[in-house]
Design goal:
2 strands, 4 helices, single chain, about 110 residues, mainly alpha
Length: about 110
C-alpha cells in the first residue's frame, strides 16, 4: 500500500489504527475505501453489541448513541466518495484546468 493511501486511511480511521492490519485488509479487499468501510462497520457492530445507554440512578449516566450516529454518518459519507486509489466509473483521469478572466468590480481612478 502506498503512503498516500495509508495517510488517507489514517485520516478516516484515526492515527492509532494498526498499520499491519490495514495492509492485510488492503491485500484482501483491494481498495482503501473498502478497508475503511470494513473497519468502520466492525466498530459499529462493536458499539451495537453493548448497551448504548447505561443509567445508574444518582451515580452515573453513560450514553454512546452519539458515537453510533457519528459512525453511521461517516459510513454513509464513505459510501458516496472515492478513495485515493479509485477512479470514477467511466471517468477521465487526466487533469483538467479551468481559466477565467478577472475584472475589477469598480473602475479605478
Amino acid at each position: 500500500m502506498d503512503p498516500a493511501a495509508l495517510a488517507w486511511l489514517r485520516a478516516q480511521l484515526g492515527p492509532s489504527t494498526d498499520t499491519d492490519d490495514l495492509t492485510a485488509r488492503h491485500t484482501r479487499l483491494g481498495t482503501v475505501r473498502a478497508v475503511a468501510l470494513e473497519v468502520l462497520a466492525e466498530r459499529r457492530a462493536a458499539l451495537l453489541a453493548d448497551p448504548l445507554r447505561l443509567v445508574v440512578d444518582g451515580v452515573v449516566t453513560m450514553d454512546r448513541s452519539a458515537n453510533l450516529t457519528g459512525l453511521e454518518r461517516q459510513l454513509a459519507e464513505l459510501h458516496g466518495t472515492l478513495g485515493p486509489d479509485e477512479t470514477a466509473p467511466g471517468g477521465d483521469t487526466t487533469p483538467q484546468f479551468d481559466m477565467s478572466v478577472l475584472t475589477p468590480a469598480r473602475r479605478t481612478r
